[in-house]
Structures are given as C-alpha cells and as structure tokens.
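Lab notebook, design round three. We kept the backbone fixed and only want residue identities now. Task for the bench partner: fill in a sequence for the structure below.
Input structure tokens:
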C-alpha cells in the first residue's frame, strides 16, 4: 500500500521529488483528490491513463499556480481572464485554446486544440505546484467510472500500489469536482456543474451562460460515471428493507448528506456517503431529494450519473 503522509515540509519535498522523476502521487485539492503527474512528461501521463483505466480520448485537467503559468499554455480572451481573476485559485476549470508552443504533452489534452486548466486553492496542492514549477496533470484519483475520492483513504483503497505516496490533506472542503467552463471568444459554455455555480458565473460575467451542445461537450461527460456497487434510487422519501438510505434535511437516513439541509455540507459529504453505502453492502441504495438550485444542481448531476452508472454495471 502507498505511504499516506500528513502535509509537512518533508512530505511536500518527497512529493515533488516523485513528480520530477516522472512518478504519480495522490494530491489533495479543495474539490477531490487528484492523481497527479508532470503534465509535460508523456510517459508519466500515460501512466495516469493506465492506472485509472481511462480511455485516452478523455483529456485531463492541467493544474497551475495561477494566471501567469496558465498563459504560457492557453490563450485567454478578456472573458476568460475575467473568470480566472474572479475564481482562481479555486474550483473553476477553464477550457481554452491551447498554445502551439505549450510544453504540455498532447496525451493530456487528448490531442485536442483546447486545454482544460485550473489553479487549485488547496494549500498542499499550491505548495507542490510552486515547488515543482510546472503544470501538473491530475484527474480525480479513482479508477475510471468509480466514485471520486474525497479522503486520502479513498485514494489508497481505490488505487492501492499504483501510487507510492498520497499526501493526506484531510477531507476535501468542497467534495465535488470543479466546474468546467469552455470559453470560445466571448461566449461561455458550461460543460460540468460544480462548486462555482451557474449563478456565480453569470454574476461575474454579467451575461447568461450557454449550454453545452452536441459540438461543445466534455468527452468525459459522455461516459458512465461514479458507479456505486448497488443500484441507486433517486428522490426517495422512504427506504425499502434492502436499501441503504442516504438522507437530507428532514428525511432521515443511515447516512446523512446534511441534517440541516445545507447544500454545501451535502456536496462535501456526497462521495463519502456513497462510499459508506458501498461498504454497507446492501442490495440497493436510496437517496433523498436534493433541491435543484445553486450547488444542488451539481449534486443532482453527480447523483443522476451515479444512478445511471449503477444500473449499467453488471
Ligand atoms: O476538481 C477537479 O476538477 C478534479 C481535481 C483533481 O482538480 N479533477 C477532475 O478531473 O475532476 P477529471 O479528469 O476527473 O475530469 C476532467 C473533466 C473531464 O470530464 C474531461 O472530459 C474534461 O474535464 N476535459 C478535460 N479537457 C477538456 C477539453 N479540452 N475540452 C473539454 N473537456 C475537457
Ligand atoms: Mg473524474
């Protein structure tokens, strides 16, 4: 099993040394844990796809220290820059035209002419990025199609010896993957809902967002995702005898997303509750209704995918 180390000067040094050697590490961010490697090292990046069993047509996010590093790899329109200034460091990924001269390996971007890029807010991730000095490619640190990890333990359980070191930054403060926004000129298309909500983005830009359509869509959003081991039933108010119930607000459960009906708390607990339901080993899982507003939309997006994934799996 991998070393799971608390965040210290020493563990950060060790993590950076592994990255410099073309290795993989488990890296905490404010959203979910990432499986991180040098974005400019093709062999290292190939390792990520192998370990996750991820199709190579599904591109990765490049993590940077901030706007300055990002501009060496992506072209920022004024709108893109305004979003970065408003939400970085933080849980917003921008999909932008990739610079031809960027040293980021084409495997990272699945040879697209766009690049997904974000500056994470978690202090451990920031320290690693600053000391490493180059972009870090990092998808969520789970086998492809499985629940995203929000604790170091989830990473160790899911990836085992595929990583030698996991930095333990505690439970992720947000618990859902970043919002993904594609900017084409002065138009913004929402590709994945996340902690930065549609309302936040529209307020920052002063204009409505456009939906992703057939032509503009994240390859990853087309795939089955977040499959728990048992079928998942949504909008449940009363569990049947063989269901593990995940509650919210006034609807009680075996595990609670948030007893007070707080959406932020629910987002933070979502993958943890689903992991707990998996561990309980019941024949089925049920989850209480979540209001479809603000952060609730991102939670419902993950739940709908989890429900589809669980039915699709054998
Ligand atoms: O919060 C997060 O975003 C976490 C942490 C570790 O930063 N990372 C994460 O990575 O969720 P991943 O690989 O699980 O999701 C990245 C998403 C995928 O849906 C992928 O298809 C999309 O971003 N994506 C990456 N590059 C893209 C591009 N050039 N165009 C459109 N979508 C892209
Ligand atoms: Mg993922």
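Proposed sequence:
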């Amino acid at each position: 099993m991998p070393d799971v180390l608390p965040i210290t000067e020493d563990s950060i040094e060790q993590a950076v040394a592994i990255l410099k050697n073309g290795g993989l590490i488990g890296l905490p961010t404010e959203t979910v844990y990432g499986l991180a490697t040098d974005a400019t090292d093709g062999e290292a990046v190939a390792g990520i796809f192998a370990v996750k069993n991820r199709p190579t047509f599904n591109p990765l996010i490049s993590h940077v220290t901030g706007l300055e590093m990002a501009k060496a790899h992506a072209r920022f329109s004024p709108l893109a820059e305004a979003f970065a200034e408003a939400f970085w460091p933080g849980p917003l990924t921008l999909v932008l035209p990739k610079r031809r001269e960027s040293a980021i390996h084409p495997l990272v971007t699945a040879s697209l002419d766009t690049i997904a890029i974000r500056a994470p807010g978690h202090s451990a991730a920031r320290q690693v990025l600053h000391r490493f000095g180059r972009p870090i490619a990092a998808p969520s640190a789970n086998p492809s199609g499985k629940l995203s990890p929000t604790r170091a333990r989830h990473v160790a359980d899911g990836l085992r010896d595929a990583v030698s070191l996991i930095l333990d930054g505690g439970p992720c403060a947000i618990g859902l993957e970043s919002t993904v926004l594609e900017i084409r000129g002065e138009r913004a298309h929402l590709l994945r809902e996340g902690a930065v909500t549609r309302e936040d983005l529209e307020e920052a830009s002063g204009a409505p967002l456009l939906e992703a359509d057939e032509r503009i869509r994240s390859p990853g959003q087309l795939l089955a995702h977040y499959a728990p081991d048992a079928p998942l039933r949504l909008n449940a108010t009363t569990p049947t005898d063989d269901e593990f119930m995940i509650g919210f607000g006034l609807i009680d459960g075996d595990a609670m997303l948030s007893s007070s009906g707080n959406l932020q708390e629910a987002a933070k607990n979502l993958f943890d509750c689903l992991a707990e339901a998996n561990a309980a080993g019941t024949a089925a899982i049920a989850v209480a209704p979540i209001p479809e507003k603000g952060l609730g939309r991102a939670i419902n997006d993950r739940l709908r995918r989890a429900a589809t994934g669980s039915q699709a799996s054998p």
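Keep this in mind before ordering anything: The first helix runs from residue 9 to 20.
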